[in-house]
Amino acid sequence: MNPRERVLIALKHEEPDRVPIDLGGTDSSGIHVIPYIELRKFLKLPHKPVRIINFIQQRADVHDDILNLFNVDVIDITRVSEPCGSRYALWRYILGDGTAFEGITNKWILWRREDDIGYEAEIPSYIQVVKSNNDYIAYIGNKILAKMPRNGYYFWGVIDKEKNILYNARTVDDIKKFDWDSYKVSDQFLNLLRERAEYLYKNTSYALAFVEGATLHEWAQGVRGWDKWLSDLRIRKSLAEAILDIRLEIVKYNVEKYVDVFGEFVHVIGFGDDFGTEEGPQIDVKTFREFYKHRYEELFSIVKKRSRAYIFFHSCGSIYPLIKEFIDIGVDIINPVQISAKGMDPEKLKKEFGDQITFWGGVDTQHVLPFAKPNEVIEHVKKLIEIFAPKGGFILAPVHNIQPPTPPENIVAMFKTAYEYGKYPIKR
């Protein structure tokens, strides 16, 4: 089978020739730039410029030689390394004032870190990084985007409390003053996505994913602040409802545009809201039903009615109580399957939900990949395949992006085992 056939058969809950493999096919199944650079050195691959495709997470774009070496089956249509069809960066960021920035450029600049970590990589030309005391501060134009401490691994979003209207909103009238139009996707962005998707569909055999669909809960946390938003859901419900209503209308506008331009070219459309913590969901099922369930049903119905694409939903952490809710609203794929979180036992998940939803992820990036020995990684991957793979419905990938200080030996062990041991029928 070719990669596209393999993924689509697994998504139908049937058994392909082997378990499909993902590295970098979504924004939450890739690899941080530090372990990626180390991996390329370890494998003695030719030097290629490393591009950071998600600046906040410092996620590296995975080159085609790694895709081939690790037998990867799915790619993200926003990638900028071969195969891609064009070098345009196509990414959307939330700025400190709460507005959205649509990043479109085919110009890349080299950014060198001036600290003990000291890597260099290419970033989109519209991002400027300034050193300030012990922090790196990133700007887009004159607006702050994020900051990272010296010797840190990730940038973190920064709320500009003076300029962010939504952060300071107290009434429904306040939120109407916000620049909601900044969140609407432009025709230029859509046309470039369409070109990229069509090129990859016609010139590669990969399954194609686009995972920038939307967030609701996580977006509100970002622009309101965690404490305020969780309080809104309890004691300022009319304000929370108004914010979500306007947000949903913008998201529906964008998703309709995405689905229409993608046509048959994109197989997986991704959404996400990190509802989990390590110990359980941030909100209970009642709150999910009150604020989110009907809105996501409305949103997902657009995808279902206008395309044959599968709905991918990213939600980190302990989300067991919410999985049935996700299935009810039309989610086809759950990611990243954080098995180290409370209640996320693989055998229980497969037994209860395995015939209703595809599990995409599973390989522990918190404890196993960074700190185990290669032979322990091998056994870990084998066990996951034995549990999740029978009757399809499983795409093997890291639980969120591979992080520092993951040794390259463990990354190689993961993908080598996935390829060799993941052939059907699964050995036990």
Question: What can you tell me about this protein's structure?
Answer:
The chain has 428 residues and is an alpha/beta fold. The chain has a single domain, classed as TIM Barrel (Alpha-Beta Barrel). It has helices at residues 3-11, 33-42, 64-69, 165-168, 172-176, 187-203, 217-224, 226-235, 237-262, 285-306, 320-328, 346-353, 368-371, 374-388, 408-421, and strands at residues 52-54, 59-60, 74-76, 89-94, 100-105, 108-112, 120-124, 127-132, 135-140, 143-149, 156-157, 207-210, 268-272, 310-314, 333-335, 358-363, 394-398. The strands form five sheets. Strands 3-12-13-14-15-16-17 form a seven-stranded parallel β-sheet. Strands 8-9-10-11 form a four-stranded antiparallel β-sheet, with no helix packed on it. A two-stranded antiparallel sheet has the order 1-2. Helix 2 packs across helix 15 (408-421), helix 7 (217-224) packs across helix 8 (226-235) and helix 14 (374-388) runs parallel beside helix 15.
